[in-house]
Automatic annotation (TrEMBL), chain B:
<keyword id="KW-0456">Lyase</keyword>
<keyword id="KW-0067">ATP-binding</keyword>
<dbReference type="InterPro" id="IPR003439">
    <property type="entry name" value="ABC_transporter-like_ATP-bd"/>
</dbReference>
<feature type="domain" description="ABC transporter">
    <location>
        <begin position="7"/>
        <end position="252"/>
    </location>
</feature>
<dbReference type="InterPro" id="IPR017871">
    <property type="entry name" value="ABC_transporter-like_CS"/>
</dbReference>
<dbReference type="Pfam" id="PF00005">
    <property type="entry name" value="ABC_tran"/>
</dbReference>
<dbReference type="GO" id="GO:0019700">
    <property type="term" value="P:organic phosphonate catabolic process"/>
</dbReference>
<comment type="similarity">
    <text>Belongs to the ABC transporter superfamily.</text>
</comment>
<dbReference type="InterPro" id="IPR003593">
    <property type="entry name" value="AAA+_ATPase"/>
</dbReference>
<dbReference type="GO" id="GO:0005524">
    <property type="term" value="F:ATP binding"/>
</dbReference>
<dbReference type="GO" id="GO:0016829">
    <property type="term" value="F:lyase activity"/>
</dbReference>
<protein>
    <submittedName>
        <fullName>Phosphonate C-P lyase system protein PhnK</fullName>
    </submittedName>
</protein>
<dbReference type="InterPro" id="IPR027417">
    <property type="entry name" value="P-loop_NTPase"/>
</dbReference>
<dbReference type="InterPro" id="IPR012700">
    <property type="entry name" value="PhnK"/>
</dbReference>
<keyword id="KW-0547">Nucleotide-binding</keyword>
<dbReference type="GO" id="GO:0016887">
    <property type="term" value="F:ATP hydrolysis activity"/>
</dbReference>
Length: 303, 258, 370
C-alpha cells in the first residue's frame, strides 16, 4: 500500500464542484433580490480555515470566470499574508489574472476595507464576513434574530446606540457599524471601519457578502440605499484624521498607524496600499516618503 | 367615554393535555376599567392572563380587541407581527419579577426609551427627555437615568418596569402580581402610585393577584377563579363585602382572619 | 525611513518550506508510510474519519502525516477534500442489529443473548507504560474463536418486547434524510440532522458536555444499554435494479444509552434513549454523543431546559471543531484597521476624561505635545 501522491486526492476546477457553485449562485441571486437579507446557504468546508475568508472565497469561486481579473485585499492592503494566500489560491485553482489595481479588477475580494478608488458599474466587491448578524451581540439566539428581521423589530439596535451616547457622549461603534439597506433590512457591513460606510451607499458596483462559518450570504445591488443608523441629534459621522498620509499626502482616506520605534514615534499611512502607490507614482509626496521611486503596481497574467 | 368595550372575551379555554388551564371564561372590559382576577395559585388566573395577552394561544374561544381605529380585531387571528406591534404600543405587560420585563444590562433611560425607539423615534434628546419625565412620574430620581436596573432595589425595578410599559401611552395593561415579592411598605407605595397612574391616564388594566387587598385598592370589578373556572364576578366592593359563592366567602374570611 | 512591508508571498513560501522540513524531521529516521499509520495508529485514523466524516483510512492517514499529528488539522484536511466530492446517492440505513460484532458490552444485563464480548479494549489494562513496545518486540497472535452463530439482538429490542422503552423513532414515509453538508442548518432541527451534527462533532467538546450532564447539569440517569463495535454492510438502492446493491462494509461504534424517565404530559413513563454512532472504534465519542443526544431531547420530552447540554443552538453551533478552530485562530490575522478605529476612539475619550478630571494637567500635556 504505497501512496501515489499524484492521484490519491484530486480537486475540481476552481475547487468547488459545479453543483455547489450553482447552489451558491442561487443564494447570491436571492440575496440580490432581497437587499440586506441574510440568505442561509449550505456553506462548504474550504481549504482555508473558517474565519479566514471562507465565505468570501466561496462567493468568489462561484462567480469567477476565466476572463475575470481578481484583486484581493486584507485591511486595505494587497500584500498582507492572508490576501496573498487567497490571491495565490485563485491563481492556482482558477488560473485567472490577478492584479493589485483597483480600477482594472472585475472582482475584488476584501476583508475589513473598501478601496479608496471609487468603484464602477460592472465591478463586484466580495466581502469576507465573520458575524453576519447585526443583532447577534444584543440577542444571541438565531431563532429570535430571524424573527426580529422578519418583523422589522429593530428598536434594540437603537437601544445600543442610545447607550453609547448616554455613556460616552457619542456613538462608540467604530467598525461593523450597522446600516439599513433600501429602508428595510438592518445589515452588518462586515468589520469595515465606519469610515467606509458612505462608500456603500448607491455604489455602482455589486456588493456581495459571504459568511462561511455562519453560512449566510447577503447582497447590496448597485445603486441601493445604504444608510448608517443614527439619531437626528447625533448624526452618523466618519472618522477623521488630523494629518495626511505620511507617504503620499492623501487626505480624507483611512490611515493605519505604524509604530516606528519604542519611544512613541509613529506615522500614519494609507491603509489602501494600491491607492497610496498610485498617488506616489503621480508624484505626490508625504513628509516621510522615501526618495526612491517605487515599482509600478504589477499585473500577473494567467499562465 | 365610548359605549363599546375595549376587549370582548368569549368562552376562552386553555387545556394542557387533559389538565385544565382555564375553562370557558367570558367577560367584557371597558375603557378605563381595572379588572382584578383573583384566586389561589393553580386557579388558572395566570393562564388566562397569558392567553389574553397572546403570550399563549387558547385551546378554544375568542378575544376581540378594539383597535384605535374603532374596529374590533380577533386577537388569535392576527399575525405575529401585528400582535407584537400591539404589545409594544397599545398594550403593556407588568411582570411579577421585574427582571422578566426589563433589560437588566442596559440603563434605566434606555429601558424606558426602547419602546419609543421601536416605534421610530430617532431624536436622542427627545427620547431622553421623555425618559426623564417618566422616571419622575414613577418617583425615580433623574440622576439614576444612566444606571442599570441591576443597581436598583426591588421596588425601584418594579416602578421602572411600569414606566417602560406606559411610555407609549398604552390603552390596556396586563399586570401579573405587580406587588408580589415586595416588602409590605414598598407594596403600599407602589399600589398608591399605580392607582394614581391608572386614574390619570384612564388606563384599562387586567390585574392578576392572589392578594385581595390589591384587588380592593386597584380594581372596580373583579373575577374570582378556582380550578380554571370563574366562580364569581362583580363590582369589587360588592364581591368583597357580600361574597355569594362559597369559595369567595372562604377566600374573604381567610383574609380577614390574618 | 519607512518602507511598507512587502514580500508576503515569499514569506509564505519560505514558511511552508520550513513546515515541510519540520514535518519530515530528521532525515536519518525513516519516513512514515501510510500503511504504518493505518495499522498502528488506527484509533487516530478512526477519529479523523469520524469527525472528518469521510470513511477512507488511507486519506485519513495521509491527513495525519500532513498535519504532523495535529488531529483537528487532519480532520480539516479531510473535510476540505470531502466537500469537493460529487454525491452519487444515499445508502440504506445501516442495520447495527446485523453487525459483525467484535466488541459488545451491556451495563444493564449480566448476560444476554449473544453474550458480553470485551473485544480489543483498553478497559482493565493497567495504565503502566510498556517498554517492550519501544523495542518493537513481536506480539503474539490473539486467541480467536469460531464466529458465533447465535444472533446478537440489540438491548433496545429486548426492552422493547416488554414495552418498557420508547420504540425506534419512525420518519414519515416520504422523509428524505437531512444532510448537514448540503443544506444550511436551521434551528430547531429534526433529530436526524442533530445526530449527524453530533456524530461529526468534536470528541472533547461532546465529552465535556456529556460529563456535565452526569454531574447534575441536566441529569438524565443514564445506563449503558449497549455498546457495540463491528462491521456493518452498506447497501445502495439503484432505481434500475429491483434489489439493493451491497457496497462493502464500514466499521462503526454504536452506543445506546437507556435513560430513566418518569413520563410527562407528552410521553408515558418508560425508558428513553440517547443514541451515539460514529465511524470506526470510539467508545468515548459514541457514549458522549448518546448523553448529549438524550439531553438535547429535553423539549421533545417536555423537560425543562436548564443546562448547556440541553440547549440545541448552543451545543450544535459550537460542536464543530473545524469551525471552532478557524474562528478562534482567525484572531491572529491582521485586525489593524478595526484596531485603529478603536484606538482613535479610546484616545479621544481618554483626552476628554483627562480634561474633565484634571483640567490643569490636561492643558499641560497638550502644551507639551505641541
Amino acid at each position: 500500500m504505497t501512496a501515489q501522491p499524484t492521484d490519491i486526492a484530486t480537486y475540481n476546477f476552481a475547487y468547488l464542484d459545479e453543483q455547489t457553485k450553482r447552489m451558491i449562485r442561487r443564494a447570491i441571486l436571492k440575496g440580490i433580490a432581497i437587499p440586506g437579507y441574510q440568505v442561509p446557504f449550505a456553506s462548504r468546508e474550504m481549504p482555508m480555515p473558517y474565519g479566514w475568508g471562507t465565505g468570501g472565497v466561496q462567493v468568489t469561486a462561484s462567480i469567477i470566470g476565466p476572463d475575470d481579473v481578481l484583486k484581493v485585499i486584507d485591511q486595505g492592503a494587497d500584500d498582507t499574508t492572508n490576501a496573498v494566500s487567497i490571491r495565490a489560491f485563485f491563481k492556482k485553482v482558477a488560473n485567472v489574472t490577478v492584479t493589485t489595481d483597483t480600477a482594472t479588477a472585475s472582482i475584488i475580494q476584501t476583508r475589513h476595507r473598501i478601496p479608496e478608488h471609487p468603484l464602477t458599474a460592472g465591478q463586484v466587491l466580495v466581502y469576507q464576513v465573520p458575524i453576519p448578524e447585526p443583532l447577534r451581540f444584543l440577542e444571541p439566539r438565531e431563532t429570535e434574530t430571524r424573527k426580529m428581521h422578519a418583523l422589522e423589530e429593530y428598536g434594540l439596535m437603537h437601544v445600543k446606540l442610545y447607550e453609547d451616547i448616554a455613556k460616552h457622549g457619542r456613538i462608540a461603534t467604530t467598525y461593523a457599524y450597522p446600516v439599513k439597506v433600501e429602508g428595510r433590512y438592518v445589515m452588518d457591513p462586515s468589520p469595515t471601519p465606519k469610515f467606509d460606510n458612505p462608500k456603500m451607499h448607491r455604489s455602482p458596483a455589486l456588493q456581495l457578502f459571504g459568511a462561511g462559518r455562519e453560512k449566510r450570504i447577503y447582497a447590496v445591488p448597485p445603486f441601493t440605499d445604504v444608510v448608517s443608523l443614527d439619531f437626528e441629534d447625533h448624526p452618523f459621522e466618519v472618522q477623521t484624521f488630523d494629518q495626511p498620509c505620511a507617504l503620499c499626502a492623501a487626505e480624507n482616506v483611512y490611515l493605519d498607524e505604524v509604530i516606528l520605534d519604542d519611544h512613541g514615534g509613529h506615522m500614519f499611512v494609507c491603509s489602501d496600499t494600491d491607492h497610496c502607490e498610485k498617488r506616489r507614482e503621480e508624484g505626490h509626496r508625504g513628509h516621510l516618503a522615501p526618495e526612491t521611486h517605487l515599482a509600478p503596481a504589477n499585473m500577473e497574467p494567467a499562465q | 367615554m365610548t359605549d363599546e368595550p375595549l376587549l370582548r372575551v368569549s368562552a376562552l379555554s386553555k387545556f394542557y393535555g387533559s389538565r385544565v388551564g382555564c375553562d370557558n371564561v367570558s367577560f367584557d372590559l371597558w375603557p378605563g376599567e381595572v379588572l382584578a382576577v383573583v384566586g389561589e395559585s393553580g386557579s388558572g388566573k395566570t393562564t388566562l392572563l397569558n392567553c389574553l395577552s397572546t403570550r399563549l394561544l387558547p385551546s378554544s374561544g375568542t378575544a376581540s380587541y378594539r383597535m384605535r381605529d374603532g374596529q374590533f380585531r380577533e386577537l388569535y387571528r392576527m399575525s405575529e407581527a401585528e400582535r407584537r406591534f400591539l404589545m409594544r404600543t397599545d398594550w403593556g405587560f407588568v411582570h411579577q419579577n421585574p427582571a422578566d420585563g426589563l433589560r437588566m444590562t442596559v440603563s434605566a433611560g434606555a429601558n424606558v426609551g426602547e419602546r419609543l425607539m421601536a416605534v421610530g423615534d430617532r431624536h436622542y434628546g427627545k427620547i431622553r427627555a421623555t425618559a426623564v419625565d417618566w422616571l419622575s412620574r414613577v418617583e425615580i430620581e433623574e440622576d439614576r437615568i444612566d444606571d442599570e436596573p441591576r443597581a436598583f432595589s426591588g421596588g425601584m425595578r418594579q416602578r421602572l418596569q411600569i414606566a417602560r410599559n406606559l411610555v407609549t401611552g398604552p390603552r390596556l395593561v396586563f399586570m401579573d402580581e405587580p406587588t408580589g415579592g415586595l416588602d409590605v411598605s414598598v407594596q403600599a407605595r407602589l399600589l398608591d402610585l399605580l392607582r394614581g397612574l391608572v386614574t390619570d391616564l384612564g388606563l384599562a388594566a387586567i390585574v392578576v393577584t392572589h392578594d385581595l387587598a390589591v384587588a380592593r385598592l386597584l380594581s372596580q370589578r373583579m373575577m374570582v377563579m378556582k380550578d380554571g373556572r370563574v366562580v364569581e364576578s362583580g363590582l369589587t366592593d360588592r364581591v368583597l363585602d357580600d361574597p355569594r359563592a362559597p369559595y369567595t366567602q372562604l377566600l374573604v374570611s381567610s383574609i380577614l382572619q390574618v | 525611513m519607512y518602507v511598507a512591508v512587502k514580500g508576503g508571498e515569499a514569506a509564505i513560501a519560505n514558511a511552508h518550506g520550513l513546515l515541510a522540513d519540520r514535518r519530515r524531521g530528521d532525515r536519518s529516521v525513516p519516513a512514515l508510510r501510510l500503511d504504518q499509520i493505518v495499522e498502528q495508529l488506527a484509533l487516530g485514523v478512526d477519529r479523523v474519519m469520524s469527525e472528518g466524516s469521510l470513511y477512507d483510512r488511507e486519506l485519513a492517514a495521509l491527513a495525519i502525516v500532513q498535519a504532523r499529528g495535529d488531529m483537528i488539522e487532519a480532520i480539516f484536511l479531510v473535510r476540505a477534500y470531502r466537500t469537493t466530492l460529487p454525491r452519487f446517492g444515499y445508502t440504506r440505513p445501516i442495520d447495527t442489529g446485523a453487525m459483525l460484532v467484535e466488541r459488545r458490552v451491556s451495563a444493564t444485563y449480566k448476560d444476554l443473548p449473544g453474550g458480553q464480548l470485551l473485544g480489543p479494549t483498553f478497559d482493565y489494562t493497567h495504565r503502566l507504560l510498556d517498554p517492550e513496545l519501544a523495542t518493537g518486540a513481536d506480539v503474539a497472535e490473539p486467541l480467536q474463536r469460531a464466529r458465533e452463530a447465535e444472533p446478537m439482538p440489540r438491548v433496545s429490542a429486548i426492552l422493547a418486547r416488554e414495552g418498557l422503552i420508547e420504540p425506534d423513532g419512525k420518519m414519515p414515509q416520504d422523509h428524505i434524510p437531512g444532510d448537514i453538508t448540503r443544506e444550511p442548518l436551521e434551528f430547531p432541527m429534526a433529530r436526524d440532522i442533530r445526530l449527524q451534527a453530533l456524530s461529526r462533532g468534536d470528541e472533547g467538546f461532546l465529552l465535556a458536555l456529556g460529563y456535565s450532564t452526569q454531574r447534575g447539569y441536566a441529569r438524565n440517569h443514564p445506563f449503558v444499554g449497549e455498546i457495540r463495535i463491528g462491521e456493518v454492510e452498506l447497501e445502495l438502492d439503484i432505481p434500475e435494479l429491483p434489489f439493493a446493491v451491497p457496497l462493502g462494509t464500514v466499521r462503526v461504534t454504536e452506543c445506546q444509552m437507556v435513560n430513566q424517565f418518569k413520563g410527562s404530559a407528552k410521553a408515558p413513563p418508560q425508558f428513553t434513549r440517547g443514541y451515539g454512532l460514529v465511524f470506526g472504534q470510539s467508545e468515548r465519542k459514541a457514549m458522549a454523543m448518546a448523553l448529549c443526544d438524550r439531553a438535547l431531547r429535553a423539549s421533545e420530552l417536555g423537560e425543562d431546559v436548564v443546562a448547556a447540554a440541553q440547549d440545541e443552538e448552543f451545543v450544535i453551533s459550537h460542536s464543530d471543531n473545524v469551525q471552532a478552530t478557524g474562528f478562534v485562530e482567525h484572531l491572529k490575522l491582521p485586525h489593524y484597521v478595526d484596531f485603529q478605529a478603536e484606538l482613535d476612539l479610546v484616545r479621544r475619550m481618554r483626552a476628554e476624561y483627562e480634561a474633565r478630571e484634571n483640567p490643569a494637567k490636561a492643558e499641560e500635556t497638550k502644551e507639551a505635545a505641541e
